[in-house]
Amino acid sequence: MILNETYYQKLFERFSGVHHVETKFSNNVIALTVKIILKHYQENKTLHINFQNSKETLLKIAGHLYIELANDIYLNHYDLPGIKDGDKVKRRVNGEYYLVKKIGESHYRLNHQLRKSKKQKLPADIPNITYDRLVKKFVKVDSGVSDKTIEDYFNFFQSLNFEKTDFPRTNFETISVFISKKPLWDSLNEKNKIPSIYLPNPREENHLSEIKSIPAITDCLVYFTPKYEVCYQQIIQQGKKIKSIIVFDTEASNIEQMRLDQQRFGFNLIVLSNSLSPQKITSIPCWNWFKEEVDIVNSI
User: What superkingdom does the record give (predicted)?
Assistant: First the structure.
């Protein structure tokens, strides 16, 4: 532990150039910790951050990381959706729904699905549309969804990055995973704008079905699950590629196994804990925040 204000001022300077999109930090220690974690994340380096009895601070840090990691996937790991017969799509310009019929290698017919509250005035079927136009002008959905929900999702990421994308991004080639108890999932204020999925632990929870933050979106940016075992069985073994796993104050006994799997599957690992005596792993650098340090940093 170093109780020297100059040291922490230099830390701020050292990590000041770390790219991040979140700017509304509650205090200095949260801002600095997020930047330290993102620096390691961007360099694909494993890290353990521990706070001494400060669960609320840890929750806020995780909330920031949720947005930062989701945004990284959104910007850098999106994929074009596969389109097949019978898929349902929603037109962005007017919110109308269509069923897809493939009529060529990269051409489709869209059959208009008239809403009960509307009357058909003109033929709304689209007889011939290319794949490029289809993925730019329509969103593939699993169910009905309000125009506002879809636009809130796209507008959220556009506002984070100050740019519009060429086509709606709803499919992703890799994801991030939070291993955390459900209270973290419940606390996330922005999850209705970030496609995410909570996978329950069937041994401990009554609700056994996955929970989607935006049910109609076919894919997601971030998974949450309380057990690494669930992550391994339902995500890793299903062939999904993981960029990073964030362990949030749980599953300390499984960190060693995660380290072994990390070498095999290539994901990065960030551990967040809240303990007076954190369980440390020799191969993972641990940044252990003491209360006295937190007080100094927050006073700078």
Answer: Bacteria
